[in-house]
Amino acid sequence: MLRSMRERPELLVELDGPGVSPDTVDTLALLTLAETYFRLIGKVAEASNMSLTFQGLRVLDKCVAVSATPNNQELAQLVSVRALRIISGEESPPRGTEVLTSNLRSCLRSLPTGHVARTRWGKRSHPLVAPPLPSQEHPWETVELRVIPIRVGGADPGARLRSASEGHEFTVSATAEHARRLGAMLYSEVDVELEVCRDFEGRIERGRVLEVHAVSDAEPATAWRQWFRANAPEWDEVDDVGAELGRDRN
Amino acid sequence: MVEIEIDHSLLPNSAMLDSSVLIPALGKKARATDDPACAKLFDALVADRRQILVSTPTVAEILRRAPVSPLPRTRLVRVVSFDLAAAEVLGQRFPPSVLAKVRDDTGSPLHYIKYDAMIVACAVRHRADCTRRSWSGGWS
């Protein structure tokens, strides 16, 4: 029996659909969905420097639901509402939650037609909805990023890159010459111009290297001040930088 | 002259510096007289090996004529572009209604607010921990 949520506030993930019952539910689909959801909730809380854990596990009848009890009820409620926006694509996933968000969306998209996943807090039930995948091919864009080459090679040369500007590592193709240059700079910072194509979540799914620029070992403050002196000496004649920029609020 | 001390324990891992910080941080006169805290902040971030981000809209504000040399590509200072992903951040977080409200609340000109929003969008897109700007009223 479903106990009153007032007695024991729990966060539920439920799966409903034609013929879905505890005896017929796809075990792995439900468990993966629930695990990914609870992990995402914890990670979203963590992104706001808060801790949220869950204890206990109940599998409930009616449709089929998995429930767990949070250590902090108010926080769980707040985070679960925010997670709905993140999962639906209304809000960008905070740093560190991109992979879990993407995995949960994949779980939701792989549910059989007619099946619906919901989350429930108390009496409030909300459908878990992944954003639709665009049917058209994604646009290509040119970007310049500071990256660290992690791996370079292959019969068709490619490079696995890490960048502080992206939430994930990604692989791009390269000419043999670019691959040689990147290979000589493994685990060092280098600037690259890339042509990339992103998936719906904004992750680079493929691309190619257009240019490679070495990063200098010069002392940064000295190099930047020399550049400024050569290229923007007019600013030394300016008494009030803020006003000159049009930023003076007074 | 007021002695400025930087609390290194409060420095972020990465910070986007806008023109109102970068120009005093790099310019000789400003370094001496205008806002010495900017130069101190820049030097402290470098000394502590924290990442400084400089957006291309900021470079556009600094340059007042054709550059005579390319921007330095040095470790710890990363020039980041206002690219498609940054444009999407701008559209999502700073639509015209938000910019107009900031204009009404602050009295600042819309072109300045838009520029600032572009710089903040670059900071979000390139995952800076914080953005630093200064004006006559203080720091943000």
Describe the overall structure.
The complex is a heterodimer of chains A (250) and B (140). Chain A has 3 domains: 2-127, Alpha-Beta Plaits (2-Layer Sandwich), CATH 3.30.70; 147-214, Beta Barrel (OB fold (Dihydrolipoamide Acetyltransferase, E2P)), CATH 2.40.50; 220-249, no CATH class. In chain A, helix 1 (27-47) packs across helix 2 and helix 1 (27-47) packs antiparallel against helix 3 (98-109). Chain A has helices at residues 27-47, 73-88, 98-109, 176-183, 220-231, 241-244, and strands at residues 11-16, 54-60, 64-70, 116-121, 124-127, 140-153, 158-162, 170-173, 190-198, 204-214. In chain A, 33% of the residues are buried. By secondary structure, chain A is of the alpha+beta class. In chain A, a hairpin with a 7-residue loop joins strand 7 and strand 8. Chain A is elongated and about 75 Å long. Chain B is 51% helix and 14% strand. In chain B, strands 3-2-1-4 form a 4-stranded parallel β-sheet. Chain B has a two-stranded antiparallel ribbon with strand order 5-6. With 140 residues, chain B is of the alpha/beta class. The model of chain B is unreliable at 135-140 (pLDDT under 50).
Task: Name the overall outline of chain B.
Answer: globular
Q: Please work out how many helical segments of chain B DSSP would assign.
A: 7
Strand content of chain A: 25-35%
Gap between N and C termini of chain A, in Å? 66 Å
Helix content bin of chain A? 25-40%
Side by side, the strands of the main sheet of chain A go 2-3-1-4-5
Assembly status: heterodimer
Mean pLDDT of chain B: 86
CATH topology (fold) name of the largest domain in chain A: Alpha-Beta Plaits
Strand order of the largest sheet of chain B: 3-2-1-4
The CATH H-level homologous superfamily of chain B: 5'-nuclease
Written as H for each helix and E for each strand, in order along the chain, the element string of chain B is: EHHHEHEHHHEEE
Structural class of chain B: alpha/beta
Estimate the global geometry of chain A from the Cα principal axes.
elongated
